[in-house]
Amino acid sequence: MAFEVTESSLSVEEYPFVPGLVLKNISKRYGDVQALHGLNLEIQDGEFCVIVGPSGSGKTTLLNIIAGFTKPDDGEVIVDGRVYNRLSPRDRNIGMVFQDIALFSHMTVRKNISFGLEVQKKNSTVDIDNRVKKIADRLKIGNLLDKKPGLLSGGEAQRVAIGRTLITDPSFFLFDEPLGNLDADLRMEMLTEIKRLHLNLKKTFVYVTHDQEQALSAASRVMIMKDGKVLQKGHPREIYNNPGDRFVAEFFGVPSMNLIDGTIIPEDDGSLFKGAGLRVKLQGYSQPKEAEVTLGVRPADVIVGSRITEDGFGTINSIELLGDKNHIYLTLDHEQTIIAITPPKTTFELEQKVRIKLKENKVFIFDRDQGGRLHP
Hints:
This protein has 376 residues and is of the alpha+beta class. It is built from eight helices and 21 strands. The chain folds into two domains: 12-251, 3-Layer(aba) Sandwich (Rossmann fold); 258-375, CATH 2.40.50.140.
């Protein structure tokens, strides 16, 4: 549902029909540094929204503003039609999971999970015990309830931290780099657990990470940030297939998009890209004059072989055999390196010179200086 408000000081009653979480013109400055620039975002009830961007992009600042730990200089945080700006963090009914788990080391797992309810003094001991057991069973940590945090693995401790958040039944959840301290195998295991939790709870999750792989695999919607601004937002597949500019194209995707600097030359039936020894015909793209540009193509859209009509040649300098696919690293002219993804049965050798073909409808052209997308 579209949401538009022209007055910045409306009362709660004047926001009767809005998405679950609305961020309206959120700005934040620290001294001379503008951390956030008038951000606007709508998150529907039950959505899994991942905010992704490099360090310093403003992700955690934005999350802290939603949670109430940081006050915005301008703008409003609206939840279910209610302006939250003046509410303290404890009154916002938000569950937050941090990268720094910070469990109470002197308490058992049982006490760590129940702590939030016990300080509220609204529930009976029996009710608290039942809720702790139910949450522990859901998170598969029932056998750990009498242990202390020092005896837990990283994944177990993270489950306890999530359980501690679940116990108070928050209206929605904020995750700030929750898997940053785990090794690769545990990260994927815990990400699967978080996705399963989201499906079961059917509540809104806002998840901050710098890891594009987590965003691609978990999100129903992604918001990409850089320098305190939102560059693009949408479904992960939409952003992957249609990056709005060079930064998004390079940042979002594993492996990153290949980027090759070169020149666009006008031709009668389109344009020709020349760069790093490649000559790529671009049908239907008219360029009135020569221009310095950057060509982008995903590794999966680079065809490598010895019997293809080529756009150019490359020399194989590295091969990664990943079971279901191969990553082939190729050196072009001027020491330009690109990656191609090939089927597992394809065999190549190091230092082999091969033909390279870029899939015609999968090539992007970006402005060399500003980074904006020019084609398609």
